[in-house]
From TrEMBL:
The keyword Metal-binding does not apply. The keyword Transport does not apply. Residues 16-163 form the Chromosomal replication initiator protein DnaA ATPAse domain. It comes from Gilvimarinus gilvus. Pfam families: Bac_DnaA, Hda_lid. This is DnaA regulatory inactivator Hda.
Length: 237
């Protein structure tokens, strides 16, 4: 029950299941506020710059890709770019023409910190998008002040607009998120089994969902329910 990638103009793919509906955001949480903010920015073309930051595994990539899916559903032209994967290329070639996109999402912003060529290129892109009234959404594991950008003008730009610290989930919330994703896959995952997984697998949500994906395939192939012995055997715990 895996998801097929969606191809974008730069050959970068989005996961089909990276949607706002699939992002676990507890009621009254900051993360729910983040989701609502992102939807509002795409819908209303309000604030032109949104900066998300948080720990690895907090769901930053998911939120960026979900924003792209949401925008595309409204007929908006988008481009998602994972900076960690493209640092070996000249920024001018990769960023050329992005100012014409309605929404640009730059993931892994930390990767460009201290790289003069990339910093200058992003500064120019930021200004071009702002001048053309387009929306720029970025994500990093550091807040704007501690990102380590050397270009002062770029660092100041990163402190404009809307800034959100995406919160990592607690163990109880991870159990709820895992069970919710399992239900969406048509899997019956009890609270006890979900707790067993959370306590024994690296507690990064990406890792947990990868384990669920593996269990989904194994359960289908072997026609087995998700019991603790089956999970232990399948995941090698």
């Amino acid at each position: 029950m895996g998801s097929a990638p969606q191809q974008l103009s730069l050959g970068v793919s989005l996961k089909d299941d990276a949607t706002f509906a699939n992002f676990f955001a507890p009621e009254h949480s900051v993360n729910l506020e983040v989701v609502n903010c992102l939807k509002a920015q795409v819908e209303n073309n309000g604030e032109q710059f949104v900066y998300l930051w948080g720990a690895s595994g907090a769901g930053l990539t998911h939120l960026l890709q979900a924003s792209c899916h949401y925008a595309e559903s409204m007929g908006v032209n988008v481009q998602y770019l994972p900076l960690n994967d493209v640092m070996g290329f000249a920024p001018e070639a990769l960023l050329e023409g992005l100012e014409h996109m309605d929404l640009v999402c730059l993931d892994g912003l930390d990767a460009i910190a201290g790289n003069a060529q990339w910093e200058r290129a992003l500064f120019n892109l930021y200004n071009a998008l702002r001048d053309s009234g387009k929306l720029l959404l970025v994500a990093a594991t550091h807040n704007p002040r501690s990102l380590g950008v050397h270009l002062a003008d770029l660092q100041s730009r990163f402190q404009w607009g809307v800034i959100y610290a995406v919160e990592s989930l607690g163990d109880d919330e991870k159990i709820q998120a895992l069970r919710k994703r399992a239900k969406e896959r048509g899997l019956d995952l009890s609270a006890d089994v979900a707790n067993y997984i959370v306590q024994r697998v690296p507690r990064d949500m990406n890792q947990l969902f990868c384990c669920l994906h593996k269990l989904d395939h194994a359960s289908l192939a072997e026609q087995r329910k998700l019991t603790i012995p089956f999970v232990k055997k399948t995941l090698g715990l």
